[in-house]
Design a protein that fits this description.
By secondary structure, the chain is mostly beta strands. 0% of the residues lie in helices and 48% in strands.
Length: 126
């Protein structure tokens, strides 16, 4: 079964850091761009970043620029989201999603995605 499995969410204090992982199984992640998307209660779903299949190119939402970093290790079939300087407004469920092809944007429409992770809760609170 082809799927994305996320790990690494949790509770962190403001200013802290977390790293999320998104591991692919059943398909080769190299051929897919990865987008990280978050959904907070009562708010519109927001794409926070896109990373190209090779990892050479990234595209970030303004709200996370300079704080979040996307990366991937295709040898491990895994993508990562490093989140630093976290703020309470970063609290959300974070999803990774994979889209086959080369087009990469944090604002990609959801119909472009072939696979979704199950979501990881990130809570930023003191």
């Amino acid at each position: 079964q082809s799927q994305l499995v996320e790990s690494g969410g949790g509770l962190v204090q403001p200013g802290g850091s977390l790293r999320l992982s998104c591991a692919a199984s059943g398909f080769i992640l190299d051929f897919y761009v990865i987008v990280w998307i978050r959904q907070a209660p009562g708010k519109v779903r927001e794409g926070v970043l896109c990373i190209s299949g090779s990892g050479d190119s990234t595209n970030y939402a303004d709200s996370v620029k300079g704080r979040f970093t996307g990366s991937r290790d295709n040898a491990k079939n895994t993508a990562y989201l490093q989140m630093n300087s976290l703020k309470p407004e970063d609290t959300a469920v974070y999803y990774c999603a994979a889209s086959r092809g080369s087009y990469c944007s944090a604002e990609m429409p959801t119909y472009e995605f072939h696979y979704w992770g199950q979501g990881a809760q990130v809570t930023v609170s003191s």
